[in-house]
Task: structure prediction
Amino acid sequence: MKFSSSFKVGLLTLIALVLLFGVILKVKGRAFSNADRIEIQFKDVNGMRPGAGVQMMGLRVGQVEGITPVVEGENNYVKVKFVITDPDIKIPKGSVFTIQQSGLIGELFLEITPPKTRTLYIPMKTKDLLYKDDPVEMRLDDQYYDVGQVKSIEVISRDAVPYNLRDSIETKYAYKIDYIVDLPGLILPEFMKGKPVYKSGAKKLRISTLDDTILPYPEQKSPYTIIEPMRIADFMEWQYRAAESLTETNKKINDLLSDEVIAELQTSVANINSLTSQSAATIAKFDQLIDASQGDLKELIALLDRTSNDFSKLSTNINNLIGDKEFKTKLYTTADSLDLLSKNLNKIMDDGNAEAIAADLRVITHNVNEISTYINSMTKDDNLKKDLTRTINSVNKAMSDISTTLAAVNQLTPENKTELESIIDDASVTTCNLRKFSEKLNKRFLLFRLMF
Result:
């Protein structure tokens, strides 16, 4: 069967058109495949047209097929539909979509940026163990949500931690944790902090901002994070507002810093400089005085040290003297004997002299008690203790004899009491002398009290 020339020409033309159409589609990035069509929404596409390229990390992976504006009352948006021509490319959850421009006046294209890996450092503790693929949570609004997962964990020395983060690591080693945040629409600051927490029987990495600011939960239906493009007009408007704010600030500063205020500030600075120089001169004189008096100060300190040592030795001797129970008992017995003597004298005598003698004896008893108390609190000298013990024994014996005599006197008749008056007069003189002696002895112990 023979074909006419017209049929052959038409067939060749059709084959050429099909090949041309396939080459054009291939060059433009569209393929004859069942690749998924993805649809996202922008508030503004900034002039991007259908046929624009789709890039991931700088490589062309697809093409924009359609751009359709949608007006629904106040909810207006632009629907962008694109296709990924490379079957090996998978768009991770939470990837960031932006509209970029190649060069200053180049064409616009759709850029896909997978969730970036973030890094934080926490102190290494036995109970704070995390593992790869553990969830990452963060507080958004009023509750905690899983926003990502741990990618890797490495134990490093504290010295390997960045200098600006080293102060937060109090252990010798630290965990270097790499993680990603793939919650769509969640945009975080560059630097974050974190800590391991137990939740529902599992470990999680809880992250937060450095100032513990609570971010809102993103209200976005798309599985991707959409970053709206910035127009030049919007950029210029923001710059204009910033310039207005700066101008207003400069005006307020100029109003505050008037000529009078500047003059007062200059005067204050001059006064401060003068005061500083005077203070420096005073400090210099004080240093000279200290240097000149250094020898005297050393001698005074040495003297104080010797005085302190002497007082310590004296205190030790006094403490060694007092503390003997036998000595205390005998001293208190002497006081009791004197008191008994006073009572017996009161029984046998009822005139004024007897009362005076009794009062003197009570004073003597009081002074002896005070002496006993002072000695008990101030000294433990063995030699002095022996002397005092011997003296007190003698006084006790004398008091015992006096008590025996007074008991016998109580049995005398009234006629015999006349003969005792002369003896009482002599006793009164003796008692007065004893009182004077007691007062002198009390004054000496008062001097000891003042010294210590």
